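Lab meeting, item 3. Inverse folding demo.
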């Protein structure tokens, strides 16, 4: 029997994120309340019937999502319980038995471990810190040649880096040459630090793309558990049928609230709220990193995350565990991305909580430096 590969980061967060005083492991922004979101509704949300809804998403919701992708219509869209379900059914459908997947690293490890648990061969191509967290085109081609599926997270997690046009072209060209599908996890699109247009989707650049989105990161609505996939019509139908074996559908209340959030008159306000939190919190985050003098990092292009290399006599899992036990503080260790002395900081929480959390982290750094 194949040994099951657990999803280390999700186990870590699921176990502890609601049991610590300060959570720097979250990669989104401070969530909206139900009242704040419902205030945008023109009708009474409380009148929503809590029955079974359309299992691939209501027509209005899928139309709003399709409007975010050039050339898409509601037949290209399937809604899911978070992007995690969208990733799951896509990998399940597109990886044949004994297939090969090429994965852009470092990344959110769900698809990596899914592929391993499905018995696939996993090839990695890595973003390079010295290249501004961009991959080497030659390494992209080597990993993708002969692959069935290519997985890309853009904007990146944990790095917060957006792929350059050259990097995107290298991935698309390699996938096209191999005849491989691209699964583009784009949940941080819209959360760009500099504002302006959202990071371009891989959708429309190649005819074998499944684009994944979510309300969790750029919208501050993770509690709705609303995600989606956008795929060519025939594939979208097949992926919808896969959800018959997982959750069947999203909740009717989540669908109603998601349609409010993604309405063209409402969405810009929610996205700008998230970007405002990211912009206001990034400065105290980076000021603290600079002041501690043990970190090396690149400012993120998108998302409320900073991925920092550190110089301390602790491996990343030991550091994370000591922070949890001694400081009541949760972070994500680099080991959860198959890397060494790195930490992913989530800085999207209220700024007073962020500063208090960083102060606690600083206490442990002081102890570690003093013990050298």
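The presenter then showed the designed sequence:
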């Amino acid at each position: 029997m194949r040994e099951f590969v657990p999803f280390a980061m999700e186990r870590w967060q699921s176990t502890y994120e609601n049991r610590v005083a300060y959570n720097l492991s979250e990669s989104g922004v401070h969530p909206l309340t139900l009242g704040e979101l419902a205030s945008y509704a023109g009708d009474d949300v409380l009148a929503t019937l809590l029955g079974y809804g359309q299992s691939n998403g209501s027509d209005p919701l899928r139309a709003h999502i399709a409007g975010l992708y050039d050339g898409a219509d509601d037949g290209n869209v399937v809604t899911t319980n978070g992007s995690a379900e969208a990733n799951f059914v896509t990998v399940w459908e597109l990886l044949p038995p004994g297939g090969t997947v090429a994965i852009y690293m470092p990344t959110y490890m769900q698809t990596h471990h899914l592929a391993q648990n499905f018995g696939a061969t996993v090839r990695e191509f890595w973003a390079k810190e010295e290249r501004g967290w961009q991959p080497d085109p030659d390494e992209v081609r080597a990993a993708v040649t002969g692959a069935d599926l290519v997985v890309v997270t853009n904007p990146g997690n944990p790095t917060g880096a957006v792929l350059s046009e050259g990097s995107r072209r290298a991935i698309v060209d390699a996938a096209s040459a191999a005849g491989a599908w691209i699964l583009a996890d784009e949940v941080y699109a819209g959360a760009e630090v500099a504002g302006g247009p959202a990071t371009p989707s891989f959708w429309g650049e190649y005819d074998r793309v499944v684009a994944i989105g979510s309300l969790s990161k750029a919208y501050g609505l993770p509690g709705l558990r609303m995600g989606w996939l956008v795929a060519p019509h025939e594939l979208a139908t097949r992926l919808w049928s896969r959800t018959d074996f997982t959750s069947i559908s999203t909740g009717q209340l989540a669908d109603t609230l998601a349609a409010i959030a993604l309405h063209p008159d409402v969405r810009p306000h929610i996205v700008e709220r998230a970007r405002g939190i990211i912009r206001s919190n990034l400065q105290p985050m980076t000021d603290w990193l600079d002041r501690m003098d043990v970190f090396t990092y690149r400012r993120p292009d998108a998302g409320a995350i900073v991925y920092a290399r550190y110089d301390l006599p602790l491996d990343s899992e030991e550091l994370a565990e000591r922070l949890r036990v001694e400081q009541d503080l949760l972070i994500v260790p680099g080991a959860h991305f198959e890397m060494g002395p790195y930490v992913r900081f989530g800085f999207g929480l209220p700024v007073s909580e962020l500063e208090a959390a960083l102060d606690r982290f600083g206490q442990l750094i002081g102890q570690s430096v003093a013990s050298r």
